[in-house]
Write a structure and sequence with these properties.
The chain is an alpha/beta fold and 436 residues long. The chain has 14 helices and 17 strands. It is 33% helix and 20% strand. It is globular, with a radius of gyration of 21 Å.
């Protein structure tokens, strides 16, 4: 099995707030960061008179987290968010460039696809206009393309954010970048867990970051056919596990956890928040082309994570489901969770946070992991936002109406899913649970 791995720091930004404790408090009181999307949606032809809702991040000052001011100006919001989450996590763990072993410290990050902004191409397009034909492709190929900044191709690299964080903090250990959707953050945490267990590193930063919501990112959500009908107020648009759910809403954010081997954490006197007990992953052919994993893949990833953690279902204090509000996807996931829990399905509370934050794609599972750590520390599970009419035949214990006090169990499972059949699960445990 290798070394035991513990969580010693967490960092996160989302539509609920710009630091983990504020988001956790907001989640417990039933707040939502989802609102009507202004400034972008009116530029998209939706084919109907329908607005969009989204969970956006506000107030991130890159100067608070990025030491290279010149580089910060060239970075996009997704990198600013990742730096904020990573910086918070390191501060929480009380590690910094001056006290870490650079060669034994690494980073894994799930990064959603990085999209062009219209402004990236606007000047080149203008310089390629030629009356009376308008845009002249020959003029663009001769001279217009030169107006595209060479920085565009750099900031669009999926591993650029990881590299920038590693350079600032001097992380010379193992690293890996995963993409593009809801599976990526789980893959990042799972990879970091294995690297630590196998002795490849002593400390790992692991997490994920969403894209900045621009026209390209929103069009991808629309193309996938997963966007919820916007309600009034917009905060109620995403309704996981509700019989009236119509889809999910896009969200911005980032979340990072500091993971360490137990001996390393003990040697430096770190405050241990929780333990990473196991990880499981699976992939299957989506049923009928639906944008969610088949039931068998969810069951396999969940069961594999429990097996990796050497846990039986009765040890679970709760489950953070992926549950983005998809009509068929949530039902399939509920059935899979019920199948794995078996006779404990009715006594194991299940929650989801996307109704309050939006779908953060590669950051979705890492953000729920941060909340899971808080659940283990504070012994509460948040209610599912906007769950008014639970599916009557879900077969699982959905948390609704208010936060649920954890009365039994010492572990929490977090599920995440991609849109092409991938399913991920990470299991966290209360550190004291194993007699440490």
């Amino acid at each position: 099995m290798g070394e035991r791995v513990v969580v010693t720091g967490v960092g996160a930004v989302s539509a609920l707030g710009n630091e983990p404790r504020a988001q956790w408090t907001a989640l417990l009181r039933g707040a939502s960061g989802v609102g009507a999307l202004h400034g972008l949606a009116e530029d998209i032809d939706l084919g109907a008179d329908r607005p969009l809702a989204a969970g956006r991040v506000h107030g991130i000052d890159p100067r608070d987290w990025i030491s290279d001011r010149k580089a910060a100006r060239a970075m996009r919001l997704h990198t600013h968010m990742a730096f904020a989450a990573a910086g918070q996590a390191m501060m929480s763990a009380k590690i910094h460039r001056g006290n870490l072993d650079a060669d034994a410290t690494g980073i894994t990050l799930g990064v959603t696809m990085i999209d062009y902004d219209i402004a990236d191409l606007e000047l080149a397009a203008r310089r390629s206009l030629h009356d009376p034909i308008g845009f002249d492709i020959e003029r663009f190929c001769r001279t217009g393309w030169r107006a595209i900044s060479p920085m565009v191709s750099i900031v669009m690299l999926n591993n650029a954010t990881l590299c920038q964080i590693a350079m600032q903090y001097g992380l010379h250990g193992p690293n890996a970048s995963f993409s593009p959707f809801g599976e990526a953050g789980g893959q990042a945490i799972g990879a970091a867990l294995r690297m630590l267990q196998e002795g490849d590193a002593q400390v790992m930063l692991a997490g994920g970051v969403s894209p900045r919501l621009n026209l390209s990112a929103l069009q991808r959500f629309l193309y996938l056919g997963i966007v919820a009908d916007t309600t009034d107020p917009a905060a109620g648009s995403c309704r996981p596990f509700d019989r009236d759910r119509t889809g999910t809403v896009p969200g911005e954010g980032a979340a990072v956890l500091v993971l360490e081997t137990l001996p390393h954490a003990r040697d430096r006197g770190a405050h241990i928040l929780a333990e990473v007990l196991g990880h499981g992953a699976a992939v299957g052919v989506p049923p009928g082309g639906e944008p969610h994993p088949p039931r068998a893949a969810v069951e396999q990833s969940f069961a594999a994570a429990l097996d990796d953690a050497a846990l039986t279902p009765d040890r679970l204090a709760g489950v953070y489901a992926d549950a983005p509000g998809l009509l068929s996807g949530d039902a399939v996931e509920a059935a899979a969770i019920g199948a794995v829990l078996g006779r404990h399905a009715g006594a194991t509370p299940v929650t989801s946070t996307k109704g309050a934050t939006g779908h953060l794609l590669a950051a979705a599972l890492p953000l729920q992991s941060v909340f899971a750590v808080h659940s283990l520390v504070d012994r509460y599970l948040p209610a599912i936002a906007n769950l008014r009419h639970p599916e009557p035949d879900s077969g699982i214990d959905l948390v609704s109406g208010g936060p649920r006090r954890i009365s039994a169990g010492d572990a929490v499972a977090c599920l995440g899913a991609g849109f092409r059949g991938q399913s991920e699960c990470v299991v966290f445990g209360a550190f004291e649970a194993k007699g440490a």
